[in-house]
Design brief:
Blueprint (H helix, E strand, L loop, with lengths): L1 H27 L13 E2 L22 E4 L4 E10 L4 E10 L5 E2 L9 H4 L9 E4 L4 E4 L16 E2 L4 E9 L7 E5 L6 E4 L2
Antiparallel strand pairs: 1-11, 2-3, 3-4, 4-9, 5-8, 6-7, 6-10, 10-11
């Protein structure tokens, strides 16, 4: 009888561990679809070049909130800035090469943190600056130091583009405007709602 009781007890403990693991994994999941009730964020008009003209790219997002010009024809068009219920702010856009020849994404856009740089070229050097709250927000990192942003960036061929994202801690709800900064690119002001 004791052997049978031990087997039942051991089996029940195993079931409890499996059920706990399922609930833990389900609780750590991320919604695959955006929430319909999220307030949209807006930004200022696209940045102008020295001649006063916006530089078009081959395929810009349907709605462009800001355009940042970088080196050697690289251009970042910000398409959306979304807060989520988890306290994060996600910036999405498209990195394009408007030049006549291929252009390597500069290593400076990864930032200079050793943990981030060792994971390859990314947009880990991006920051949001809240001048009213006097805070700078950096791209989030996972427990291994990988930035929560598009990574593995290399050469962008002339006329090509790459969809990109960056995830930051969300500024307080009363913060209505931040400056988006990415090394080697012009800064842009993003209005948050």
């Amino acid at each position: 009888m004791n052997v049978q009781y031990a087997r039942i007890r051991h089996g029940a403990a195993g079931v409890a561990v499996v059920v706990s693991a399922v609930f833990f994994v389900a609780g750590c999941g991320v919604d695959g679809e955006p929430k319909a009730n999220k307030p949209p964020a807006t930004a200022t008009t696209p940045q102008k070049t020295q001649q006063g003209q916006s530089q078009p790219t081959g395929e810009e997002p349907a709605e462009t909130l800001a355009v940042l010009n970088g080196r050697k024809g690289l251009q970042l068009a910000i398409a959306s800035v979304e807060r989520d219920a988890g306290g994060f702010l996600t910036v999405k856009g498209r990195l394009s090469n408007t030049g006549n020849s291929g252009s390597a994404v500069p290593a400076q856009v990864s930032g200079d943190e050793t943990e981030v740089v060792k994971h390859g070229t990314s947009l880990g050097g991006a920051t949001l600056v809240d001048s009213v709250g006097k805070k700078r927000y950096y791209v989030l990192r996972d427990t291994d130091g990988r930035p929560l942003t598009t990574s593995g960036l290399g050469v962008v061929s002339a006329g090509d583009s790459v969809d990109v994202f960056m995830q930051f801690p969300a500024p307080p709800a009363n913060t209505t405007e931040v400056s988006f900064q990415l090394p080697t690119f012009e800064p842009a002001t993003l209005k948050l709602s």
